[in-house]
Amino acid sequence: MNGITPCLWFDTEGEAAAELYTSIFPNSKIVNVARYGSAGPRPEGTVMTVDFELDGQPFLALNGGPEFTFTEAVSFQVGCENQDEVDHYWSKLSEGGEEGPCGWLKDRFGLSWQIVPTALPRLLSDPDRERAQRAMAAMLKMKKLDIAELERAAEG
Description:
This protein has 156 residues and is an alpha/beta fold. The protein folds into 2 domains: 1-68, Signal recognition particle alu RNA binding heterodimer, srp9/1; 70-156, 2,3-Dihydroxybiphenyl 1,2-Dioxygenase, domain 1 (Roll). The chain contains 5 helices and 8 strands; from the N terminus they run βαββββαβββααα. It has helices at 14-24, 83-94, 119-124, 129-139, 147-155, and strands at 7-10, 29-35, 47-54, 57-63, 75-80, 98-99, 104-106, 112-117. The chain has a 4-stranded mixed sheet with strand order 1-4-3-2, with helices on one face. A 4-stranded mixed sheet has the order 5-8-7-6. The radius of gyration is 18 Å and the shape is elongated.
């Protein structure tokens, strides 16, 4: 086995999703597109799978039909070094989707993402429990996470 590759089940939008995701993340590309043949089960020539990479991590998009959909039980966490990165990924991935609480969003395909500044785990694990709790309380009131506001809250 050569590593772990997440397989994302779509109805028919696998190629569109791969195109969107590879346009957002650096060092990303579509590697291969496979199409259904005459044996089916979908119409011959339609996209079956798309192999793609997001910042070097392999993924597979499968156009398997409408039987299964995404839930928040699985999400992808995007670590961001600064507010510009948080803003970039938040705006690109939430476009046409749905903003959720605490840095979570669903993209237009229903896939859940967590846009998390690297400052957040540092603030939440601060040895000063009061600072950590103030940062947590601030985060719970946010949709897109605001690093400066989280740090202000931690300071009290």
